[in-house]
From TrEMBL:
Disulfide bonds: C72-C99
InterPro entries: SUSD6 (IPR042866), Sushi/SCR/CCP_sf (IPR035976), Sushi_SCR_CCP_dom (IPR000436)
Stated name of the protein: Sushi domain-containing protein 6-like
Source organism (scientific name): Seriola dumerili
Pfam families named in the record: Sushi
Gene3D superfamilies in the record: Complement Module, domain 1 (2.10.70.10)
Amino acid sequence: MSNGMIESISKAFWAHSSATKRSFFLLLGLTIVSTGQGSGCIRPSMVQHGSTNLTDTNRSLFPVGTVLQYSCDPGYLPAGPSVLTCTTLGDWSSEPPRCIHSDVCQPPYQLENGGYTCHPSPCGRLSHGTMIQYFCDDGYALKGDYRFRTCQYGKWDNLMPISCLMEQDRDPTLPLGMPALSIVASTASSVALILLLVVLFVLLQPKLKSLHR
Ligand SMILES: *[C@@H]1O[C@H](CO)[C@@H](O)[C@H](O)[C@H]1NC(C)=O
Ligand SMILES: *[C@@H]1O[C@H](CO)[C@@H](O)[C@H](O)[C@H]1NC(C)=O
């Protein structure tokens, strides 16, 4: 047993030990980098039939405190929380919601100075086939062609805007139900016709005169 042998054993030990230490610190460093404060949350998974207000499409890491709002396409309802926050731990406060197909329609557009009734009555679950009928309060008249909406597999079939106007806002001289646009159009076309007749008359006048001679 020589000193040389002990020396080489201890050298080997220290070499091994420092390698372990090095990899330990490397691992620690990586852990701090990947989960440490300020690193944020990784991009959450996409939601089928839904979307979020995540405008920064190229980013993969979002800062702590980022708030995401999820919404589902028409005909789908969110299952689970639809607002996610990036926590200091680098996790989102929850998984993104799932968007589940639903035949139930969202509450319909609310009329100002009016309302709606449901068929079947009363208004409950706005499921497929439910029909609503808009009406206006006293002193207001409906502006818009069609006062009915039907829930079709989770979507309202008619998205045409509709509103209630004060009765005196309507021009009493206009025939009832005749949209102002068609009046403008018919006025414009009569003016055009008269102009055309005048132009024809002016053009044909010399010929008529020559015929008389
Ligand atoms: C996002 O990435 C696309 C291609 O991956 C690139 O063309 C575009 O310029 C990037 N936008 C920003 C804002 O970095
Ligand atoms: C998303 O919308 C929520 C609620 O409207 C808002 O608080 C949040 O800042 C928005 N997030 C982004 C990334 O625009």
